[in-house]
């Protein structure tokens, strides 16, 4: 029987998810990568990169807002690769809008992806982990915006605060199965999602076109990072690597910041 651990990473086609999937492969895990159909080419590319590292890889088209698709994702990990030991519920979106301009349908969509998607990932992964009887790691994507609300982030912050609560609840309920649940809370990271959010904010009437992300963070009532630069996806992946490892076995229910010192717990 193989002792190789198996990870599932959602939102894996680019940005943080891509970096996390590659890091877990470097750590010796076989990896199932999942993302939307519109990103299938990128998804297949990262699966090829994982295979080139000597690990097994599987790409599965998955919309995390559809619970049945998430259920299928976990089933594919179990049936094709042999199980699931780590679930990284990374998929997310980050639209911004002041409360007076907030579209309720957009609010619902953000929560559907960022919070309900994590719920589906946690629940279906945990069911498989319980059946396997070998423990596991549930890891969710929160944010610095999940520790403090900010201008224009009503939907995003609500979803990321929710991930913290969901992660704490999962930690309580699944501890008896040797399953830990933790979340990572990135600050400003150099990813396509960050770039898109910055461009949208630059285009709004609230900011000048030459504004930097540090300027925007200040205007949104966030603290400036003590390390005054954008973080890298690899720095976030390093944290996730540790949470996913056996060395993190006495850590559960935590949301750990990787934000250059924007916040202190």
List the helices and strands and how they pair.
Blueprint: E1 6-10, H1 15-26, E2 30-35, H2 40-52, E3 57-61, H3 67-81, E4 86-89, H4 104-132, E5 136-141, H5 154-174, E6 179-186, H6 192-203, H7 213-219, H8 233-244, E7 255-258
Helix pairs in contact: 1-8, 3-4, 4-5
Structure, explained:
The chain has 265 residues and is an alpha/beta fold. It has a single domain, classed as NAD(P)-binding Rossmann-like Domain (Rossmann fold, 3-Layer(aba) Sandwich), CATH 3.40.50.720. It contains eight helices and seven strands; from the N terminus they run βαβαβαβαβαβαααβ. A seven-stranded parallel sheet has the order 3-2-1-4-5-6-7, with helices on both faces. Helix 5 (154-174) links the parallel strand 5 (136-141) and strand 6. Helix 3 runs parallel beside helix 4 (104-132) and helix 4 (104-132) runs parallel beside helix 5. It is globular and about 55 Å long. This is NAD(P)-binding protein.
Strand residues, percent: 5-15%
Sheet with most strands: strand arrangement: 3-2-1-4-5-6-7
Uncertain segments = none
The total tally of domains equals: 1
CATH architecture: 3-Layer(aba) Sandwich
CATH class: Alpha Beta
Q: The biggest beta sheet, please?
A: 7 strands, parallel
Number of contiguous helices: 8
Shape: globular
Family: Belongs to the short-chain dehydrogenases/reductases (SDR) family.
Keywords: NADP, Oxidoreductase
Organism: Serpula lacrymans var. lacrymans (strain S7.3)
InterPro entries: NAD(P)-bd_dom_sf (IPR036291), Sc_DH/Rdtase_CS (IPR020904), SDR_fam (IPR002347)
